Amino acid sequence: MSRRTKLALAVVALLVLLIGAGVLLVTRQAPAPSTAATGESITIIDDVGRTVTLRKPVRRVVVYNRYTTEFIRAVGAMDTVVGADIDSNKDEGYWRTVTKDMYAGASQSQPNYEKIVSLQPDVVFMPRNGVYEETIQKMAPFGIPVVVITGWDVLKHEYNVDLLGRIFDKPAEAAKLNAFYRHYRNLLAERLKGVERKRVYLEEVGDYKTLLPGSGFHDMVQEGGGLNVFGDVNILNQASARGTVQGFTVDPEEIIARRPDVIIKLEPRSYLPTPRETSVRLLGALAARPGFSQMKAVTDGEVYHMSYYMSSGASKITGALLIAKWLYPERFTDIDPSAVMDEWLETYQHVPRSKDYWTSLKQLRASGGNAAR
Fold first, then answer.
1. Is the pLDDT score of 21 beyond 50?
2. Could you tell me the CA-to-CA distances from 187 to 174, 179, 329, 337 in Å, in that order?
């Protein structure tokens, strides 16, 4: 081993020790010429109300959470992404420009700080349900700013997209994406006026795990004209062992008692088509749960299996459209949520359209599927 190699390994080892101990005593390396500041800057207010000043142009970013990464790609700034979390970039074919060398941690809850520093980003993007406070602390000695932006938040879509348009100098692209989103959100609001909301039980991966206000998925149900049957649960009054707003365990008897008109099962997290056998297995198992066979949603076949990708397009507007179509088909006869999803994928994500993102118990029964009757 050469002397130069030994010296490099020693420096890396020291950096790991300093980061692990929270004692970041070194300063950030000077950026490469391609990221040199021009003297301009931009001051923004992030998701949690922090004032953050960024040097411009912003050419190197590390981003956590798939939804924010999708927005960056949608406004035409994907070439700035030099680092991303593994969890949000697993689908080969969907993230064609993200390589293993760019992985900067398992998820927004487990960032790799050494990797972030080595990538020399101009900014790190972290959602508010990530470890952003710790990340801010770890990055401060290196002069790397952290912006909290939560791409999955249905109610902050336009603010988030406009913010990214300003950061990346892509105002026209941001305006186009916001117009796409706003068109369908306004359409939903107009056509759902005066509707008597149907009751929806929403379940994520894992049996009896629902989603509460603050998760984003609760807002998706609301935007689609549904009433989340567990929307009255205040997470602050619940035992921590039951989970979070992103996954809260409920009692089977309580689901039955709340009499949902529709049940929606969210799974899996994949851009690729959902195999029919997956839907048959999930819907059949759900319908066969003790006590569920007598529920109106099950007897009517109003139990749906929807992929996270279909639910989550453009801040979940595709999911809201699909829910509205299921709940009130007579009001949305001319709307094809799958076509809207195709537009999101092809126009804004620049990937081929996919299919088979959802099916229902009613469909499986009609086609001779093996779902429980």
1. no
2. 20, 12, 14, 12
Task: Give the list of residues 6+ apart from residue 268 with CB closer than 8 angstroms, or none.
Answer: 205, 274, 278, 307, 308
How does strand 81-84 pair with strand 198-203? Answer: unpaired
Helix (H) / strand (E) element for 126: namely: strand 123-126
* Architecture of domain 195-366 in this structure: 3-Layer(aba) Sandwich (3.40)
Q: Tokens 């700013």: give the residue.
A: 145
pLDDT tens, 85-123? 987 667 768 998 999 999 999 999 999 999 999 999 999
What is the spatial distance between Cα 10 and Cα 16, in angstroms, rounded to a whole number?
10
- Residues 349-369: pLDDT tens digits? 999 998 889 999 999 999 876
Domain boundaries defined on the chain:
38-169, 195-366
Top-level CATH class of 38-169? alpha beta
* Beta strand pairing call for 209-210 and 303-306: unpaired
User: How confident is the model at residue 243, as a pLDDT?
Assistant: 95
Cβ-proximal residues to 48 (8 Å cutoff; 6+ apart), any chain = 128, 132, 148
Torsion angle of the four alpha carbons 39, 45, 48, 50, in this order, in degrees rounded to the nearest 10: 50
pLDDT tens per residue, range 268-294: 878 888 889 999 999 999 999 999 999
38-169 and 195-366 in the same fold? yes
Q: Which amino acid is at 57?
A: P
Q: Are 205 and 172 in contact (CB under 8 A)?
A: no
DSSP-assigned beta bridge partners for residue 228? 200
Q: Residue 97 and residue 95: Cα distance in Å, rounded?
A: 6
Q: Is the dihedral of CA 122, 127, 128, 131 positive or negative?
A: negative
Residue 27 has pLDDT above 90, yes or no: no
**Threshold 0.90, pTM exceeds:** no
